[in-house]
Amino acid sequence: MKFGICTDLAQSALAREQGWDFIEEVVWRLLEGTAEDADWKGADRARSSVLPIRAANQLVIGSIKVTGPDANLDTLQTYMTRVIRRGAEVGMKTLVFGSGGARKVPDGFDPDKARGQVIAFLRMAAPIAHAAGATVVVEPLHRGETNIINTVAEGMSYVWAVNHPGVKCLVDSFHFWTEEEPLDNLRAAMPRIAHVHLADKVGRVAPGKAGSDYRAFFAVLKSGGYTGDLSVEAPPMDLSKEGKETLDFIRRQWREA
Asked: What mean pLDDT value characterizes the chain?
């Protein structure tokens, strides 16, 4: 089991000192899918990291639409081919499709058509990612952030529709608890859960800061045979002040689950 932290790779030395196993970066910051190859400096930045960069989130930037009248699969394919290739170059295995702005369904747009657009996007990306040794993971986001794929149960409907090893599902404790999903939804999804994000429900703060108990959540992951990565994604977190105690907390809760 590897525990990672969502942060700028410039923090990698501090993260390693605290005991973290890897960094999870942001696609727009490191892989820069809209930049031409001659302008991309991410490989040089990645080489400066003292920890592996095993994942990146915010896969599709908000200006490139996955749903709605402005969605263009050719544009998305060009973007994804570039991002996946660059991710492979820096050793990245997991690309997180949260991208609430890119996938948000415009008001008045046919929701069934939007669902078809997301499925077409994932079907396009799946073989490209798989050939590069990577996985695109569908991240359910709560309804306050976007209006499509809000639960693990819904996310899994897309994973099964695509039915390709290049696309699996993510569970984020913050979104999962915010949507008040039952653990049975996670239990049913376990064969295709390939990445985990962690943050407390209240304030999306670092695990342990707002009293959330992860042991029942972790027990489902354990019983489902989960051996993938767990990343803390808590935007208000100050790594220099909270990093070590956060890592100690989640390791202890994982042992006790």
From this structure: 97
